[in-house]
Amino acid sequence: MKKVIAILVVTLGFALNGNAQDKMMDKAVKTISLEQTKGEFVQKALTVSEGTYVFEVANNHAAKEVGLVLVKKGDDASKPENHIQTAYVTQVVKDGETQKTKATTLAKGEYVYFCPLNPTPQYTLTVQ
Question: How many angstroms separate the CA atoms of 85 and 53, rounded?
Answer without folding.
Answer: 13
